[in-house]
Write a structure and sequence with these properties.
3 helices, 88 residues
Length: 88
């Protein structure tokens, strides 16, 4: 009986044309370590992009929180003469 396709390529030492290797297996360990070191550098384009994205999200979150505080203060000012049990 004939083996599976995956067993077959191991016997011959090459991949069949319809089987592709995952992208992560293309690099050697040294190249992979070098790519990791490059991405960890402070001036890495990827790192700069990620930090800019985080800063943008954080700025939007702070703006929204500030608007919520202003709205809460305005609501408290409008209701300053009401009794606490009337705010239900």
């Amino acid at each position: 009986m004939q083996g599976s396709v995956n067993e077959d390529w191991r016997d011959h030492g090459e991949l069949p044309t319809h089987v592709t290797k995952p992208a992560w297996s293309v690099r050697s360990v040294e190249n992979l370590n070098e790519a990791i070191r490059q991405n960890q550098r402070p001036d890495s384009p990827w790192r700069l992009h990620e930090e800019a994205s985080r800063a943008k999200v954080e700025k939007a979150r702070l703006k929204q929180a500030h608007a919520a505080r202003i709205e809460a203060a305005a609501r408290a000012h409008r209701n300053r003469h009401r009794n606490p049990w009337e705010n239900t």
